[in-house]
Amino acid sequence: MPLGTHKAALFGVAGVSTGSAVLLSTAVASDDASIEFTLPTAYKQVVFGFYNIVPSTSPGDHLLFDCSVSGSYGTTKTTTFFRAYHTESDSLTALQYVTGLDQAQTTNNQQLMPDIGSGADESGAGTLTLFSPASTTYVKHFYGRFSYYYSADYAMDVYPAGYFNVTDPLDGIKFSADSGNISSGTIKMWGIK
Fold first, then answer.
1. What total number of domains does the chain contain?
2. How far apart are CA 94 and CA 87, in angstroms?
3. What is the DSSP letter of 103?
4. Does 59 or 116 have the greater pLDDT score?
5. Which of 17, 46, 175, 187 makes the best surface tag, with the fewest CB within 10 Å?
6. What is the pLDDT of residue 83?
7. Taken in order 44, 147, 3, 15, is the CA torsion positive or negative?
8. Can you give the CATH number for the domain in which 87 is found?
9. With a threshold of 0.85, does the pTM exceed it?
10. 23 has which bridge partners?
11. Element housing 104 (H / E)
């Protein structure tokens, strides 16, 4: 399959435009408490790609995120969360709405990958899309999809979504683990025109 205009986006050449997508930044985790990006103002969508994310502690570590307004995190959000999973032993499967991971007008961090494993063969990957972060008129919607190795030997596929209930521009985004550090992995930020 010829890559054409998608080559730069797939292989991650910073600053190279593919017509509509531009890789803006890449962060490689190395036992970091958090990974932060300054959000761009010139793009209607900002997409984050997550590759082989591994927390430093397990079980029970969660990959979280939040956005800032005027440099201050703890932005009010309303969210929803559902998941599908299947155990390695084939003993449990489910597709379920997870009310405990919803937020209704809170300033808490949003979970992206709950209970991600940290073993030698365990990691997570996915995407998070944020819409119109620089808007001064509308709330800021987001959605994500993540596939990862759950700490109790599950294949987990999760879907967080919601909105930041502010009309001020979002200027930063922070990814962190709730009980330890982000041991390894790569996060890339693209701007979509």
1. 1
2. 10
3. E
4. 116
5. 17
6. 97
7. positive
8. 2.60.120
9. yes
10. 190
11. strand 103-106
CB-based contacts of 102, cutoff 8 Å, min separation 6: 79, 80, 81
Cα of first residue to Cα of last residue in the chain, in angstroms, is: 25
Q: pLDDT for 75-91, tens place per residue? A: 999 999 999 999 999 99
The region of weakest confidence among 9-18, 80-89, 141-150 is 9-18
Cβ neighbours, 10 Å, residue 109: 19
Host H or E run for residue 10:
helix 7-11
Identify whether 73 is part of a domain: yes
pLDDT at 71 over 50: yes
State which amino acid sits at residue 185: G
pLDDT tens-digit map of 87-135: 999 999 999 999 999 999 999 999 999 999 888 888 999 999 999 999 9
Mark 156-188 as b/e (b = at least 16 C-beta within 10 Å). Answer: bbbbbbbbbebeebbbbbbbbbeebbbbbbbbb
Contact 125, 93 (CB under 8 A): no
- Tell me the C-alpha distance between 177 and 169, whole Å: 25
Q: Is residue 9 part of a domain?
A: no
